[in-house]
Amino acid sequence: MSDTTPVMEVRDFTMEFGDKRVVDGLGFEVRPGETFGLLGANGSGKTTTVRALLGIYTPTAGELLVHGRPFDPAGDYSLGYLPEERGLYRKEKVLDVMTYFGQLKGMERSRAALWSQHYLERVGLGDKGNAKLTTLSGGQQQKVQLGVTIMDNPSLLILDEPTKGFDPVNRRLLLDLVEAQRAAGATVVIITHQMDEVERLCDRVLLLKDGRAEAYGTVAEVQDSYGAGLVRLHFTGTLPEPRGWRPLTLERNYAEIELAEGTDAQALLRQLVDAGVTVRSFDAARTSMEQVFLKIYGHQPGEGAA
Amino acid sequence: MKLHNLGTVLGFEVRRTLTKPSFWLTSLSIPLLMVVIFALMFWSNSSALSSVDTQRGEKQAFTYADSSGLVSPTVAAEMGGTRAADATAAAQAVREGRAEVHLDIPADPTREAVHIVAEDVGLIQSGQWHALARDLLERSASERIGDSRLVGVLTGVSTDAELWKDGHRSPGLAAAVVPGLFLVLLYMGVLMLGQQMLNITVEEKENRVTEMILTTLDPRVLIVGKVLAVFAVGIVQAMVLLVPAVLVGVLFPGLLGAATAGPGNTLPADEMPPLALGGEVLIDPVRIVLAALIFTGGFLMFTGLLVAIGSIMPTAKDAGSAFGAVILAMFLPLYTATMVINDPTSVVSEFLTWFPLTAPVTALLRNALGLLPVWQGVAVALVLFAFASALVWLGVRLFRQGSISYDKRLSIGKALRASRSRPGS
Ligand SMILES: Nc1ncnc2c1ncn2[C@@H]1O[C@H](COP(=O)(O)OP(=O)(O)O)[C@@H](O)[C@H]1O
Ligand SMILES: [Mg+2]
């Protein structure tokens, strides 16, 4: 397996439940070492795509490959999957459950137990190893779940809404742990509604809408394709006729300008200079992912129809 | 299948069951209860026996009035009886507690009952008064006839039959014991392990662990591992039941026999009638092998059925009602047993013998009683094995498809269509 083989490949993936087509001819790939964001409104088919990738759902059509092959649960993967629907054997002891999953992932029993104990200490649950999972708070259980996911430092992490239901402290902890995995070379696929997380973490993203890829590329590319951005301008002189841009605010010496698609900040600057405008400050900002989301789905991320 | 995971699943499942105090509490409660009952039986039995012994040692003093003239005064005197001068006064003496027992023999004891006035010595022990009256009349009669064998013939003859079929000696009921034990074993197994079998596929679903499991190991490994774990736990449970029983049997050999004789038995142990278990047990290897085959097939069928049910139902509660129906169907043949025994070739009997759900119990019953031809027994076992494999196959597929329908009941048709189109399965 060369370094350039995509970790995941999805081609012409279609998924129907009864008469309902949930995903329609979707295609994308995830490259080794990158952090990939799978975004979309509730019910847009993100979880379905991941489940089909991992062989939990059988696709209606299309090809879904992990490391170049259809996923085989018994195969030798180094995979950490945090499902959207999560839970653990509630009546068992924390350490027993973690060790069990470690063993299932191919670790030696003793090594799995040791790893688990270290992890529990790291997340402040060092004294809970022999407690039953039911006796733990919701947040503590989530930490254990996350531990099971990143056990044995998998080279591929798939996290389906990992921060859902996390309080800010645990969210911070989770993102740090994910970041550590990423820094160690893991490929991370993250499904999230948190657009600030996307901007901070992701290399590339796919935005799903009605089962199709609405946008796909690096974060910058996606932002650029949804309005090249916003320019805040301090100037003297008279602005030329708008070509590929539109002033949102126009005062005597200040303007906020929205760039149209296909126009970049450079082009605007050139037009201004050519028109003899003295530019005293030029501050180009990309459209935030939040705005991109709003544009595509017509509502804030995390709300709206499921 | 990755077999190292099978060991992991088996180890985890067995360990977590055996390390639960509740497992030991429920498992040990049965033998403990048995020990208590046996001890009670032994205690009441030995007190009964000792009181009988004292009776045998000393004669029972009694008074009697004889209107029939059948009672021999010598016999009566030997037994400790005194002829009452005044029957009413003698009866009154008993009523006032001055005497223990008075017998009033009527003119014709074959038509009228002997009236006994006696002290109440407990529901069971009071039976001795009837025995006393019968004894008195029988021994008087035998003295008059002069031939005790004649009296014996009149009072009851024991018989012993030798049955033949197709030129072979039929083993009769004695040969039913060992094959019949498999019926008991099936009943115990179903009762004690059923719930755990049902949980095999429900638990992951209820706890939302399935997605983690399905992406980490082959579901077949999980299910087979869990089934094996239930079997292993069942064996441990059987040991917990058997070891104390065997220990009691070895340490106190008299206890089990005395207890089986029952507390109502006032005869000493050496005069006990031979019981089915205590008597001769005939070994018929063909029937025993058949019983073992049918038992295994039946138990596997039951396992497969529960695995499949668990895969369809979203929660243990939903699965529970289906489980009840299965148990009912399986043991229904016990209620129709007389019909099956009386006419093993009737349409109903045949149906119950071949319908997979009722087959194990019906076939085991017929086989134990020698009412099932060998070829049919083998065929029933084969049907059960086939049905069991189909159910396990179905169960694994349903588990794969249904395990993420957390709330809905799975549509079997949909699941099967989906699994058929699945590449490589
Ligand atoms: N097992 C299923 N049976 C029927 N419909 C389903 C099933 N799983 C998902 N869906 C439907 O598919 C659509 C996409 O769901 P999902 O992939 O979970 O969305 P997302 O994860 O993007 O929020 C939803 O309309 C959902 O109702
Ligand atoms: Mg989802």
TrEMBL record, chain B:
Cross-referenced InterPro entries: ABC2_TM
Compartment(s) of residence: Membrane
Q: Where is the ABC-2 type transporter transmembrane domain?
A: 22-396
Q: What is its main location?
A: membrane
Q: Please verify whether the record's keywords include 4Fe-4S.
A: no
Cite a single GO MF annotation.
ABC-type transporter activity
Membrane topology value: Multi-pass membrane protein
The UniProt keyword set, sorted, is: Membrane, Transmembrane, Transmembrane helix
- The residues that cross the membrane are 21-43, 173-193, 227-252, 288-309, 321-341, 374-399
As recorded in UniProt, coiled-coil segments are none
Q: Name one GO cellular component term.
A: membrane
Recorded protein name is ABC transporter permease
Q: What is the lineage of its organism?
A: Bacteria, Bacillati, Actinomycetota, Actinomycetes, Propionibacteriales
